[in-house]
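Can't paste images in this forum, so I'm doing it all in text. The chain is below; anyone willing to post the predicted structure tokens underneath?
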Amino acid sequence: MKKRLGILLSGRGSNFEAIADNIAAGRLEAEIAVVISNRPEARGLEIARQRGLTAVCIPSKGLDREVYDRMVVAELRQHQVDLVCLAGFMRLLSAYFVREYNLAILNIHPALLPSFPGLDGQHQALEHGVKVSGCTVHFVDEYLDHGPIIVQRAVPVLETDTVETLSARILAEEHQAYTDVIRIVLSGKWRLDGRRVVIEP
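Text version of the structure:
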């Protein structure tokens, strides 16, 4: 039986599209059970509906974090989600959410964590003059861009780079890395050693 993914997004969700494409192409053995957004105008909801996927908007405006998270978790449970994948979901998850899906929530960040957490990781990298940036896929805890790192992909920073050109090259790596990590996590061939995620051969 295929494992069921729950996708959380706040915008277009290009990583969601890449995951859906990889599933459709047979490169990932899973199914997307539900796509949830906290913003009614999120383009990702329309894209999900066009693909014939279940798309649900649960607006977050004005709600306490845990109150909102309980609503999202209830929706994920209803759809029997095994693994939660954040794809540009612009909210920090509560301790309640993290407990309910312990080591079963993934996020992707456009920087090599722990460097440049939060918004605009690509801009931060250029501002600091780093020579290498990239992306990080990690387990989610209740702190910002903080959970155990599973996979990182390095991307050279060119002298001619702008935020747009660097972002585009990082995004290409993100689209592959996220699917690779989902495959690893669903296979169960990994273990946690302190904060280190050890991937089994």
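The chain has a mean pLDDT of 97. The radius of gyration is 16 Å.
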